[in-house]
Amino acid sequence: xxxxxxxxxxxxxTVRFPLAxxxxxxxxxFAVKLHWHEETEIIFIKEGRFVIDINMQKYRLxxxxxxxxxxxxxxxxxxEQGCRESAVVFDMKMLxxxxxxxxxxxLIGPLLKREVQLPAxxxxxxxxxxxxxxxxxxxxxxxxxxxxAARMKAKAYLLQMxxxxxxxxxxxxxxxIADYEEKKIENVxxxxxxxxxxxxxxxxxxxxxxxxxxxxxxxxxxxKRIMGKTPTEYINExxxxxxxxxxxxxxxxxxxxxxxxxxxxxxxxxxxxxxxxGVLPSEYRKSQNSVIKGQKGDRGKADKFI
Length: 306
Hints:
CATH class of the largest domain: Mainly Beta
Radius of gyration: 20 Å
Strand order of the largest sheet: 10-6-3-8-1-12
CATH topology of the largest domain: Jelly Rolls
Number of strands: 12
Largest sheet: 6 strands, antiparallel
Shape: globular
């Protein structure tokens, strides 16, 4: 199974500077569905209460906090009303040195090879919080500018943050992750990739179970234990998200979008859509067409700066 079917399609930054900054300061709730990408991501929880899923583990924290998402990590973000957050998504290769040195050998190289891992979260109670949060804010300020000097400073602040975590012992060897946990993550990616590739047709539990070589009954229990929801619930989430994307990106009829997303009963589709989004499909299309959208994959109404 080619897990790249699940990868986020958004391009973060440019070839010349593979780093992008995103912010959310809306009035409503904030949600980014489970996804993964090759880039590293740093999320700054500035105000409000959040739940963040990283590799099937939930973190429930009040602001402020910094979350670190490594390359390939499955993650999702959920913020309560009135929350504020920002994120920087970047290709770790941008920090590599052309000439090999001890920093490349001990830190950047192992991070690229996933031999070491970043901490999932750093909070205000950590000794390095002030230095880390201050470095993040400075990095963000420079990253949104487009001059060579500003970009050089942004890279320097990123390196400073990694140096701070390395010195404090928060960058750990990946071998500390149990093989079973790694296997669970890879299994979830396979099933999610299968659903992403086949959401437009009927998907039976048998089909998904075969992807992992399990019997359907065990697979359903296994999936719910890891994801916290049934396979059917997750499939409906994916289909509704795809439908929502079609609604604001195209002028296609609602019934055609429903069929495209695997719903052959328009009434059931409308009911499911309202349960998930809180409005009817037609109302959703109108509301989205009135908003300037700068999205990161499923990142809701986040404002994109780079």
